Amino acid sequence: MPRANRPGPKGTSCLTCKQRHKKCDRRLPICERCEGGGFDCLGYGHILDTGSRNNSLLTQPTLIMPRPPRDGGSGDFSDGPLPQDSLLEVTENTSTRNNVHNAPTNMAPHADSEPPTNRSLLVALTDSPILIFQKLAGRFIQVPHHSFDPLKLFLTSPFFDDYLLTQYMKLAQQWYFKPANMHNHLLEQPIVSRLSSFTSVSRWVSLISMGMCEAFIRGDTSQNELHNLWMQHIGNSLKRELSYDPTSHEAQNRRRDLIHVSILRTLIIPNSDLYQVLQSVAPAFLQLAFSEPALWAGGSSFAYVPLMNVLNLGSHELAYFALVDCSCAMALGLPQLIEYDTTILYWLISMLVVISHRPRATGEVLSDGCWIGGPDLENIRLQNHGWR
């Protein structure tokens, strides 16, 4: 039986502020009051007018965003060897409510209210990354989170993996510095390693990064605020999860995602905020670095992070953090957040041939003047692992 709407003006506050009887600032996807106070924002799904739309939702799918005009569609960026009929329909049937919720991996705030039945979302795999992200982001805001998550099924589908890989390879063709043909596997390694994760968080981050690259190529800055807002929300969610269980194996993947999304934020936020973002993610960098035994091979001192080992480890999150850290130190005149060991051992000389074929970031890190000093990292190492 459908729930009767109460008389009076329609509410505008998120469900958390409504329950706490607080004034809501109505920011999307989560309100600033909940985020600043450390509360889980339950979103705005409870104020959606569901009574009059149930009948239409039973007969036709719901499109979260309007279809783009043909002349301004996805552009050349999203064209690729994908079938023209690659259209995924994500459907949920919520006639029987399941009270089991997933915790604490919510990637966006959701309301604890009864959703309409048979909601659908049509996503064409020939759409641009920006358009797909807008559809999925709007979907996350509209529907509550429950045990059957159709969006999670979509994000982890093989078709979506093929889409991201195709877009990534097309993006790589526009790089100024390209690896040699014999090292194409190095080019695919970052996106393939992220797609090997079964968490939807990594897929979200990959999709946002594709949208940012597409916007950069077009010279479109209108989506920066949306991308920054969602990356900030994802980062805060990852920090909360790490505070619950910082020692599990899955925590390592969350730290990688946290570093990745934070580095992406540095591309679109003001320069005045860049150093603060790096400071907030530096502990995750150190914890991830000290959890990699291969990083400390060859008798490296635990007082400094060995830069050459970071570049050869294959962890792109660690390498790009080192790049941004060193670059900010030179550009802003501020001290580096991490102390690096720039020693090149004789057995690493042969690696330079391989490094010369890697993406530009590796060479830029090598050219940065990294300073050395201070035994503080030794104390952090002992605290994290109790090594003696």
Textual characterization of the structure:
There is one protein chain. The protein has a two-stranded antiparallel sheet with strand order 1-2. Strands 3-4 form a two-stranded parallel sheet. Helix content is 49%, strand content 4%. The chain folds into 2 domains: 245 residues, no CATH class; 95 residues, no CATH class. With 388 residues, the chain is mostly helical. GO terms for molecular function: DNA-binding transcription factor activity, RNA polymerase II-specific; zinc ion binding.
Average predicted local confidence, pLDDT: 67
> Roughly what fraction of the amino acids lie in strands?
under 5%
Helix coverage percent: 40-55%
Query: What sequence of helices (H) and strands (E) makes up the elements?
Result: HHHEEHHHHHHHHEHHEHHH
Tally of individual domains: 2
The global form is globular
Major sheet size, sense and barrel closure? 2 strands, antiparallel
Placed side by side, the strands forming the largest sheet appear as 1-2
N-C termini distance: 65 Å
Number of helices: 16
In terms of per-residue confidence, which ranges show pLDDT below 50 for 5 or more consecutive residues?
49-121, 347-388
Structural class comes to mainly alpha
Pfam families: Zn_clus
Organism: Rhizoctonia solani
GO molecular function: DNA-binding transcription factor activity, RNA polymerase II-specific; zinc ion binding
InterPro entries: Zn2-C6_fun-type_DNA-bd_sf, Zn2Cys6_DnaBD
